[in-house]
Write a structure and sequence with these properties.
Blueprint (H helix, E strand, L loop, with lengths): L1 E7 L4 E7 L4 E5 L6 H13 L3 E6 L5 H4 L2 H8 L3 E3 L4 H5 L1 H8 L9 E4 L5 E4 L2 E7 L8 E5 L4 E5 L2 E2 L2 E2 L9 H12 L7 E4 L5 E2 H7 L9
Length: 215
């Protein structure tokens, strides 16, 4: 599996395009917030002759959904999220107004992703891992062959997601990281919703938030 990585919007959110040799691709957390950012995303897709087949959100905080409407309409894709994120998705209008950010309202989900589902595209499978705590029903996605984890805002380089937003809970987040992510191989590459990539092994040793965990 290959990745296209883009940093969009005032929150410096990481948007990912996942693709393989077939040309099929999945767009994860499109944060593009203006026409310039939309063009960057679209130019990468057309420049690599990719065929978008899925639009998914790891979670539905405003910075991760700003481009949902553009991607959904431009590529005729339904939105896929965990059902537990629906209220967060629908709060986007109010949150956008609160931050003074123009928000083209996301479509409603066309289907829901459950824990341990496999999302298939081309010759690739993504395993959905339920990792709540930063938001009510965050999902992380593991590509087991490449050992790549798309982590949303659950785990960052030597940090973790904030838990002071609606639906956040520190103990739940730490439990998610401990039971769902720290059991992965040390070599697992972690691509977070903000900032640079890291590995499970690096976080196991260096993340100050995880020192209280048993593993």
């Amino acid at each position: 599996m290959h990745l296209g990585i883009f940093t969009f919007n005032p929150f410096q959110e990481n948007t990912y395009i996942l693709y393989d040799e077939t040309g099929d691709c999945v767009i994860v957390d499109p944060g593009c917030s203006n026409q310039k950012e939309e063009k960057i995303l679209a130019d990468f897709i057309s420049g690599h002759s990719l065929n978008p087949v899925k639009l998914i959100n790891t979670h539905c905080h405003i910075d991760h959904i700003l481009g949902n409407k553009f991607v959904s309409e431009h590529y005729q894709l339904g939105l896929e999220i965990h059902k537990g994120e629906l209220e967060t998705l629908r709060s986007g209008v109010v949150v956008g107004q609160m931050y003074g950010i123009p928000y083209n309202v996301s479509p409603e989900p066309s289907s829901y992703i459950e824990e341990d589902d496999y999302l298939e595209f081309g010759q690739t499978k993504l395993k959905a891992i339920f990792t709540p705590g930063h938001s009510p029903a965050s999902l992380s996605f593991l590509e087991e062959q490449s050992n790549i984890l798309i982590a949303g805002d659950v785990l960052f380089l030597e940090s973790i997601g904030r838990t002071d937003l609606p639906g956040g809970n520190m103990s739940t987040l730490l439990q998610s990281i401990d039971e769902k992510l720290m059991v992965l191989e040390d070599s697992t590459q972690v691509y977070p919703g903000h900032g640079p990539k890291t590995t499970i092994g690096h976080e196991r040793v260096n993340n100050p938030f995880l020192r209280q965990l048993s593993r």
